[in-house]
Amino acid sequence: MSLSSEDIADGEGVPFDDRGLAYGDGLFETVLVRDGVATLWEAHMARLVRGGERLGIPVPSRSALDALPARAGAGLWVLKLTLTRGSGGRGYRLPDMPAPRLRWRVTPFTPSPERWWQGIRVRHCRLALGIQPRLAGLKHLNRLENVMARAEWQDPEIAEGLLCDSEGRLVEATSMNLFWQRAGRLETPGLARCGVAGTLRDALCRRLGIEEVDAGPETLESAEAVWLGNAVQGLWPVRRLDDDQGQKLADWRIGRLHRALQAEAHALLGYPCHDDDAGERDEEDEA
């Protein structure tokens, strides 16, 4: 199937009374698709099912969902699925017979290889995430906290912002999961209270035994390496960390240590692990 570079969608609008539009009552998945084949598809589907079970929203059949990645055709695309509870109910009261509404879109995608190889600058955010264990780990539609956190900076040199919960524990970045190495151990924030359990994060935790920990933001300043990653962008090594005022707290030289975890992540997504220039930089960094 040949497609133009324009977005391709299911073509049906969202009614005014849709509960996803009105209340964020729903779930979404963002999936990397290469030549019509979805990466980490089983993990995305498992998370969608978990979210549907927890929220009480019936999930479409696997046959209907499995047919969607092939709609993207050749090349690299992002498939976004949005599942809402549909319409009905009075106010916050749930409808007696929910009629879920699935919307989807595939969009051409180009990753940011310069962030893979050169690393990124990140900052802490002032906004703190609310603690709600019943929603923890889900990719639900109510993302207003992330929107407000992302509004804290406009500097294009800053790629991402890091979020803590209201009790001061590291959780995630605004749209990526967080990893670091400390005393030779790979760690990532625990997500039992809030945050999104990314599919790439979960795959790396299972594959490498990455430990889920409770840690404050000061932990990163003594880390040997820090990364951000998700199942669309891949893994970005962090080269500089700022506070919420833009003052530098720590920096790192991107070297073999960063490349090792990146290689594991990119093998799962079909991205390259390094280029010739990156290899030369690594040799210089380790000298």
UniProtKB/TrEMBL annotation:
State which Enzyme Commission number(s) the record gives: 4.1.3.38
Q: Which cofactor does it need?
A: pyridoxal 5'-phosphate
Report the pathway entry.
Cofactor biosynthesis; tetrahydrofolate biosynthesis; 4-aminobenzoate from chorismate: step 2/2
Q: Which reaction(s) does its UniProt entry say it catalyses? A: 4-amino-4-deoxychorismate = 4-aminobenzoate + pyruvate + H(+)
Provide GO CC annotations from the record.
cytosol
Query: One GO BP annotation here?
Result: folic acid biosynthetic process
Record-given protein name:
Aminodeoxychorismate lyase
